[in-house]
Write a structure and sequence with these properties.
Structural class: alpha+beta
Strand content: over 45%
Radius of gyration: 34 Å
CATH topology of the largest domain: Porin
Number of helices: 4
Order of helices and strands: HEHEEEHHEEEEEEEEEEE
């Protein structure tokens, strides 16, 4: 009876050693694409982690940039090609208890009874810490395709118009672009006897080459030259007689746009666009030639979206 009693006591005393829970940790993913978050969380579910991490996953050209902060305020960062690689890497970081032992160990000494060991608080990332890698590692100008929509007005001929532009290829700072434009302008002329009031509706299609200077992370300047064709519908009012002849010609333009980055894929731009074309009409009734002013200068402002 006595032997059974002591055996039961020893069994109860040993039980906590077998039921002690494995240590857990928190991996907080504060930013990640939805599909990547699912993959990473599936990897973490299979891993016993020992290092708390705050993780930010940012999509870049050709992969994902991973920025992590552990509970000792150490930064871990890496660029990986796909979501599976991101899951494997983050799981290995949180499972590696060597990360938490990077600081030199303190000299061994007898613990003082009056010292209480408080639990390590959860770390809340500040705005500056979380957002800093985005501007440094995800540059909006790296996108190969941008779509721009702009409108403008100006010049002595009361010109106004809209234009749509698409960057189709990028090599370094050079980009090949195509764009469509619509514009309207007016001109008044007289030969001393007859007064002419002409209104021009222009539709143009051009291809061009642009060069971009990015002088800060948020600001850039973009200079370009383009050439193409322009079709014009002229509405002519000559001493009460109205006619609407049409013509087409070669057109060229130069532009200088200054832009500001609003977000990873959005920018705004503003700047002048100078257009040069040579159009003239022979007025059979008056036996004269009406020559349109060859150049115009319009200030455009618009928004750009990376595709």
């Amino acid at each position: 009876m006595t032997r059974s009693f002591w055996f039961a006591c020893l069994w109860v005393a040993a039980t906590p050693a077998f039921t002690h829970a494995e240590p857990t940790c928190a991996v907080s993913i504060v930013r990640a694409p939805d599909d990547v978050r699912v993959v990473v969380e599936s990897w973490l579910a299979k891993e016993t982690c020992t290092t708390p991490l705050i993780v930010r996953i940012i999509e870049t050209d050709g992969g994902y940039y991973i920025y992590a902060l552990d509970d000792h305020h150490r930064v871990l960062e890496r660029t990986v090609p796909d979501a599976q690689s991101a899951g494997v890497l983050i799981a290995s970081w949180t499972a590696d208890d060597g990360i938490t032992k990077a600081d030199p160990p303190a000299p061994a000494s007898a613990p003082e009874p009056s010292v209480s060991h408080e639990p390590i608080p959860q770390i809340t990332p500040t705005l500056a810490l979380v957002d800093h890698p985005r501007l440094e590692h995800v540059a909006p100008s790296e996108s190969n395709h941008w779509l721009s929509l702009a409108g403008g007005a100006g010049g002595s001929n009361r010109a106004a118009g809209v234009r749509v532009e698409l960057e189709v290829m990028r090599t370094g700072s050079f980009t090949a672009v195509v764009h469509l434009g619509y514009g309207n302008s007016q001109m008044t002329a007289t030969d001393g006897v007859t007064s002419y009031v002409a209104s021009f509706d222009d539709l143009s299609a051009m291809v061009g080459l642009h060069y971009t200077w990015r002088f800060t992370q948020a600001w850039h300047a973009r200079a370009g030259f383009a050439v193409g064709v322009m079709a014009t519908q002229m509405t002519l009012d000559a001493s009460g007689v109205t006619s609407s002849p049409q013509t087409s010609t070669v057109v060229s333009e130069g532009s200088l746009m200054v832009g500001y980055t609003l977000a990873d894929r959005w920018e705004v731009e503003v700047g002048p666009v100078a257009t040069l074309a040579n159009e003239h009409w022979h007025l059979a009734d008056q036996m004269e030639t009406l020559v349109r002013a060859p150049g115009s200068l319009v200030v455009f402002a618009g928004i750009r979206r990376a595709l």
